[in-house]
């Protein structure tokens, strides 16, 4: 008896989950997979910096995003859209020289402190998992590419990407 009940319950639950899954596909967010034209790139310190950057950062910080198949499927699509929109808004190497925020000077520190690349991105993108050696090379490269400031000039401390607001 109880086994029968359980299996019916299980089947019904599966149907409910499946119907919900279909329903959320209709929600009109997460499908704006545009790659606007590349307007201007920074002067990279070398081809290796650019290569490492496009491997580990380019999907969210350039207009050359590779949209994987699951970026079309909610709820993954919502998370990915948010990452790319937000990432580009802060720092976009395809719109270098644009007016407003483009936080290249924080890039080296973000890698050094481990905020970037975002952890759940590297779970699915093995090519973005950098070895210690590659990480070191990228950090040096980012410093060389983006540090236009005078030596010794005070730099703003950055906050971890996960911490909302500017409490500290
Ligand atoms: C999966 C998407 C994704 C990847 C990959 C990624 N970032 Fe980000 N990045 C973001 C998002 C989202 C933000 C905005 C964070 C926030 O709201 O504070 C951000 C913010 C930044 C900022 C602005 C300062 C800050 O910390 O908020 C810098 C600099 C940065 N990222 C550098 C990098 C570098 C360098 C890499 C590669 C090593 C990288 N990111 C990889 C999504 C990404």
Describe this structure in words.
Helix 2 (47-56) packs across helix 7 (132-146). It is built from 7 helices and no strands. It is mostly helical. It has helices at residues 2-24, 47-56, 58-61, 76-90, 107-112, 119-124, 132-146. The protein has one domain. It binds heme C.
Which molecules are bound in this entry?
heme C
| Structure annotation, total helices | 7
* Percentage of residues in strands: under 5%
How many E-type strands?
Answer: 0
Low-confidence stretches: 149-155
Please state the CA-atom Rg, rounded to the nearest Å.
Answer: 20 Å
Give a quick rundown of the structure.
With 168 residues, the chain is mainly α. It has helices at 2-24, 47-56, 58-61, 76-90, 107-112, 119-124, 132-146.
SSE layout:
Elements: H1 2-24, H2 47-56, H3 58-61, H4 76-90, H5 107-112, H6 119-124, H7 132-146
Helix pairs in contact: 2-7
The structure holds heme C.
Heme C binds next to helix 3, helix 4 and helix 5.
Short descriptors:
168 residues, 0% strand, mainly alpha
């Amino acid at each position: 008896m109880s086994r029968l009940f359980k299996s019916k319950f299980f089947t019904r639950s599966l149907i409910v989950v499946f119907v919900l899954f279909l329903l959320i596909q209709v929600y009109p967010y997460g499908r704006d997979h545009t790659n606007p034209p590349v307007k201007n790139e920074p002067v990279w310190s070398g081809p290796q910096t650019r290569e490492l950057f496009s491997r580990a950062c380019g999907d969210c910080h350039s207009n050359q995003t590779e949209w994987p198949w699951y970026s079309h499927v909610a709820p993954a699509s919502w998370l990915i859209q948010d990452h790319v929109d937000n990432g580009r808004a802060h720092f976009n190497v395809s719109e270098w020289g644009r007016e407003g925020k483009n936080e290249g000077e924080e890039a080296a520190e973000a890698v050094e402190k481990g905020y970037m690349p975002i952890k759940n991105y590297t779970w699915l993108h093995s090519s973005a998992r950098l070895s210690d050696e590659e990480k070191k090379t990228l950090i040096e490269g980012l410093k060389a590419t983006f540090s236009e400031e005078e030596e010794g000039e005070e730099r703003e401390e950055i906050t971890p990407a996960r911490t909302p607001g500017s409490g500290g």
